[in-house]
Amino acid sequence: MEPEALARLDMVLGAFHSQLRVTEDQTERYLKAIRNPTVNVLAHPRGRRFNVRLGLVADWGRVFEEATRLDKAVEIDAHLDRQDLNVELLRLARDAGTRISIGTDAHSVRELGFMEFGVAAAIRAGIAPDGILNHMPAEDLLAWARETRGL
Predict the structure, then answer these.
(1) Which of 56, 107, 116, 119 has the most other CB atoms within 10 Å of its CB?
(2) Which of 101, 95, 125 is nearest to 44 (CA)?
(3) pLDDT in tens, 64-88
(4) Separation CA 91–CA 112 (nearest Å)
(5) How many angstroms separate the CA atoms of 8 and 66, rounded?
(6) d(CA 85, CA 58)
């Protein structure tokens, strides 16, 4: 999408939707995505889907450190087919101080119920509520989103 169109949105989630089966390290690709000034949240970061693809490989410590440095967030995609990020990577993100967003990648109303799996992953990883975007008051969330995009 054009940056002008993205600038009209309250928040932008960016996610990889191609080359999801490559096995080479994708750290630089992730860093470029995190550094994209129009993106607030890196959505379903690994691109993993059970019984379909393993997900991309990266130096997650570097990715989370850069997200923290730029005050960007990474998503827990709580969809049953994804469970992405897993608890181990969420603990690494927590230790780096990275903000977390919880989503469901819902394609139907029923799939919104998957949110509880994302909350459970955050709890298991020891992520405090104040580190989760979904826990922020709406006006604070919108201010954060504008600030991280320089709007």
Answers:
(1) 56
(2) 101
(3) 999 999 999 999 999 988 888 999 9
(4) 24
(5) 25
(6) 13
